[in-house]
Amino acid sequence: MSKTFLEVIDSRISATQFSDKPVSDEIINQILQILSKCPTARNAHCYHICVVKDEKLKQQVAEHSNNQMWIASAPVLLVFFRDIKKRREVTGSDAEEHFSLVDATIACTYAQLAVENLGLKSRWIGGIDNVNMHKLFGLNPLFVATSVLPIGYVNSELKHNHQPYDMKTVTTFH
Ligand SMILES: Cc1cc2nc3c(=O)[nH]c(=O)nc-3n(C[C@H](O)[C@H](O)[C@H](O)COP(=O)(O)O)c2cc1C
Protein backbone atom coordinates (compact mmCIF):
# COMPACT_ATOMS: atom_id res chain seq x y z
CA MET A 1 0.00 0.00 0.00
CA SER A 2 1.31 3.45 -0.81
CA LYS A 3 -0.43 6.80 -0.40
CA THR A 4 0.37 10.12 -1.99
CA PHE A 5 2.35 12.53 0.18
CA LEU A 6 -0.75 14.64 0.88
CA GLU A 7 -2.80 11.53 1.74
CA VAL A 8 -0.15 10.59 4.30
CA ILE A 9 -0.20 14.08 5.81
CA ASP A 10 -4.01 14.33 5.80
CA SER A 11 -4.68 10.87 7.23
CA ARG A 12 -2.01 10.93 9.95
CA ILE A 13 -3.66 11.02 13.34
CA SER A 14 -2.44 9.82 16.71
CA ALA A 15 -3.81 6.58 18.14
CA THR A 16 -4.06 5.48 21.76
CA GLN A 17 -5.58 2.04 21.12
CA PHE A 18 -4.36 -0.69 18.82
CA SER A 19 -5.83 -3.95 17.58
CA ASP A 20 -4.19 -7.32 18.31
CA LYS A 21 -3.07 -7.65 14.68
CA PRO A 22 0.69 -8.23 14.77
CA VAL A 23 3.11 -5.98 12.94
CA SER A 24 5.26 -8.11 10.63
CA ASP A 25 9.04 -7.97 10.44
CA GLU A 26 8.58 -6.97 6.79
CA ILE A 27 6.72 -3.82 7.88
CA ILE A 28 9.40 -3.01 10.47
CA ASN A 29 12.11 -3.48 7.84
CA GLN A 30 10.27 -1.18 5.44
CA ILE A 31 10.12 1.51 8.13
CA LEU A 32 13.84 1.08 8.84
CA GLN A 33 14.63 1.30 5.11
CA ILE A 34 12.83 4.64 4.94
CA LEU A 35 14.74 5.86 8.00
CA SER A 36 18.02 4.94 6.29
CA LYS A 37 17.30 7.84 3.91
CA CYS A 38 16.78 10.48 6.63
CA PRO A 39 18.92 13.59 6.51
CA THR A 40 21.32 13.67 9.47
CA ALA A 41 24.03 16.11 10.47
CA ARG A 42 27.26 15.27 8.61
CA ASN A 43 25.38 12.19 7.38
CA ALA A 44 26.48 10.55 10.63
CA HIS A 45 23.14 9.09 11.85
CA CYS A 46 23.76 9.90 15.51
CA TYR A 47 20.70 8.10 16.83
CA HIS A 48 19.70 4.61 17.84
CA ILE A 49 16.38 2.78 17.65
CA CYS A 50 15.27 -0.08 19.89
CA VAL A 51 12.49 -2.14 18.29
CA VAL A 52 10.51 -3.65 21.17
CA LYS A 53 8.06 -6.56 20.87
CA ASP A 54 8.78 -8.27 24.20
CA GLU A 55 5.73 -7.87 26.47
CA LYS A 56 7.67 -7.34 29.71
CA LEU A 57 9.97 -4.79 28.10
CA LYS A 58 6.98 -2.94 26.59
CA GLN A 59 5.49 -2.66 30.09
CA GLN A 60 8.79 -1.27 31.39
CA VAL A 61 9.02 1.26 28.55
CA ALA A 62 5.45 2.36 29.38
CA GLU A 63 6.43 2.76 33.05
CA HIS A 64 9.42 4.85 31.93
CA SER A 65 7.00 6.95 29.87
CA ASN A 66 5.31 8.62 32.83
CA ASN A 67 3.29 5.44 33.39
CA GLN A 68 1.32 5.91 30.16
CA MET A 69 0.53 2.20 30.36
CA TRP A 70 -1.68 2.09 27.24
CA ILE A 71 1.57 2.33 25.27
CA ALA A 72 2.28 -1.33 26.07
CA SER A 73 -0.88 -2.37 24.17
CA ALA A 74 0.82 -1.54 20.86
CA PRO A 75 2.32 -4.62 19.18
CA VAL A 76 5.62 -2.80 18.59
CA LEU A 77 7.37 0.13 20.24
CA LEU A 78 10.12 2.07 18.53
CA VAL A 79 12.28 3.77 21.16
CA PHE A 80 14.46 6.56 19.79
CA PHE A 81 17.72 7.61 21.42
CA ARG A 82 20.10 10.39 20.56
CA ASP A 83 23.65 9.00 20.34
CA ILE A 84 25.78 11.63 22.05
CA LYS A 85 28.86 9.36 22.11
CA LYS A 86 28.91 8.96 18.33
CA ARG A 87 28.23 12.67 17.86
CA ARG A 88 31.26 13.56 20.01
CA GLU A 89 33.40 11.11 18.03
CA VAL A 90 32.25 12.54 14.69
CA THR A 91 32.82 16.14 15.75
CA GLY A 92 35.87 15.56 17.93
CA SER A 93 34.29 17.72 20.64
CA ASP A 94 30.94 18.37 22.28
CA ALA A 95 30.36 21.48 20.12
CA GLU A 96 27.62 19.93 17.97
CA GLU A 97 26.12 17.62 20.57
CA HIS A 98 22.63 19.03 19.99
CA PHE A 99 22.64 17.64 16.44
CA SER A 100 22.13 14.15 17.87
CA LEU A 101 18.77 15.35 19.23
CA VAL A 102 17.89 16.80 15.84
CA ASP A 103 18.87 13.53 14.09
CA ALA A 104 16.74 11.43 16.46
CA THR A 105 13.81 13.83 16.07
CA ILE A 106 13.94 13.76 12.28
CA ALA A 107 14.15 9.95 12.37
CA CYS A 108 11.05 9.70 14.57
CA THR A 109 9.18 12.10 12.27
CA TYR A 110 10.09 10.00 9.22
CA ALA A 111 9.03 6.87 11.12
CA GLN A 112 5.63 8.38 11.94
CA LEU A 113 5.03 9.22 8.27
CA ALA A 114 6.34 5.83 7.09
CA VAL A 115 3.97 4.09 9.53
CA GLU A 116 1.04 6.10 8.17
CA ASN A 117 1.99 5.32 4.58
CA LEU A 118 2.03 1.58 5.38
CA GLY A 119 -1.53 1.70 6.76
CA LEU A 120 -0.67 1.61 10.47
CA LYS A 121 -1.05 4.25 13.19
CA SER A 122 1.25 5.61 15.87
CA ARG A 123 1.51 8.29 18.53
CA TRP A 124 4.61 10.31 19.36
CA ILE A 125 5.42 9.92 23.05
CA GLY A 126 7.69 12.62 24.39
CA GLY A 127 6.74 12.35 28.06
CA ILE A 128 9.50 9.90 28.91
CA ASP A 129 12.21 9.31 31.49
CA ASN A 130 15.10 10.26 29.24
CA VAL A 131 17.63 9.88 32.07
CA ASN A 132 16.98 6.19 32.75
CA MET A 133 15.41 4.66 29.61
CA HIS A 134 18.81 3.46 28.30
CA LYS A 135 19.15 1.11 31.31
CA LEU A 136 16.26 -1.06 30.04
CA PHE A 137 18.33 -1.89 26.96
CA GLY A 138 21.77 -2.07 28.53
CA LEU A 139 22.89 0.97 26.56
CA ASN A 140 25.60 3.47 27.44
CA PRO A 141 24.21 6.52 29.35
CA LEU A 142 25.24 8.68 26.37
CA PHE A 143 22.29 7.10 24.55
CA VAL A 144 19.57 9.45 25.75
CA ALA A 145 15.96 8.58 24.94
CA THR A 146 14.14 11.24 22.92
CA SER A 147 10.79 9.63 22.04
CA VAL A 148 8.79 6.43 21.97
CA LEU A 149 6.61 5.56 18.96
CA PRO A 150 3.99 2.86 19.66
CA ILE A 151 2.86 1.46 16.31
CA GLY A 152 0.11 -0.90 15.25
CA TYR A 153 -3.17 -1.31 13.42
CA VAL A 154 -6.46 0.19 14.61
CA ASN A 155 -9.90 -1.42 14.32
CA SER A 156 -11.96 1.64 13.51
CA GLU A 157 -11.27 4.77 11.55
CA LEU A 158 -9.92 7.57 13.75
CA LYS A 159 -11.58 10.95 13.27
CA HIS A 160 -9.64 14.19 13.21
CA ASN A 161 -11.09 16.69 15.66
CA HIS A 162 -8.53 19.38 15.04
CA GLN A 163 -8.67 22.24 12.58
CA PRO A 164 -5.63 23.15 10.50
CA TYR A 165 -3.45 25.36 12.67
CA ASP A 166 -3.57 29.09 11.94
CA MET A 167 -0.10 29.46 10.44
CA LYS A 168 -0.33 33.25 10.69
CA THR A 169 0.35 32.89 14.41
CA VAL A 170 3.71 31.21 13.83
CA THR A 171 4.86 32.77 10.53
CA THR A 172 6.29 36.13 9.47
CA PHE A 173 7.18 37.08 5.90
CA HIS A 174 10.26 39.20 5.13
C1 LIG B 1 7.11 16.24 20.99
C2 LIG B 1 5.78 15.53 21.22
C3 LIG B 1 5.55 14.94 22.45
C4 LIG B 1 4.34 14.25 22.68
N1 LIG B 1 4.19 13.58 23.84
C5 LIG B 1 3.06 12.84 24.06
C6 LIG B 1 2.90 12.05 25.22
O1 LIG B 1 3.79 11.98 26.09
N2 LIG B 1 1.74 11.35 25.38
C7 LIG B 1 0.74 11.36 24.43
O2 LIG B 1 -0.28 10.68 24.63
N3 LIG B 1 0.87 12.10 23.29
C8 LIG B 1 2.00 12.82 23.08
N4 LIG B 1 2.16 13.53 21.89
C9 LIG B 1 1.10 13.46 20.85
C10 LIG B 1 0.37 14.80 20.69
O3 LIG B 1 -0.44 15.02 21.83
C11 LIG B 1 -0.46 14.77 19.40
O4 LIG B 1 0.41 14.61 18.30
C12 LIG B 1 -1.25 16.07 19.25
O5 LIG B 1 -2.29 16.12 20.20
C13 LIG B 1 -1.86 16.26 17.87
O6 LIG B 1 -2.70 15.18 17.56
P1 LIG B 1 -2.48 14.38 16.17
O7 LIG B 1 -1.11 13.71 16.28
O8 LIG B 1 -3.60 13.39 16.10
O9 LIG B 1 -2.47 15.38 15.04
C14 LIG B 1 3.36 14.21 21.65
C15 LIG B 1 3.61 14.81 20.42
C16 LIG B 1 4.81 15.43 20.19
C17 LIG B 1 5.09 16.02 18.81
UniProtKB/TrEMBL annotation:
- What's a Gene Ontology MF term here? oxidoreductase activity
Which keywords fit this entry according to its UniProt record? Flavoprotein, FMN, Oxidoreductase
Source superkingdom:
Eukaryota
Q: Does the keyword DNA repair apply?
A: no
What InterPro entries does this protein's entry cite?
Nitroreductase, Nitroreductase-like
Domain Nitroreductase intervals: 67-153
The coenzyme or cofactor needed here is: FMN
Pfam families linked to this entry = Nitroreductase
Keyword check for Cytoplasm, yes or no.
no
Extract the SUPFAM superfamilies matched here: FMN-dependent nitroreductase-like
Q: Which family does it belong to?
A: Belongs to the nitroreductase family.
Q: What is this protein called?
A: Nitroreductase A
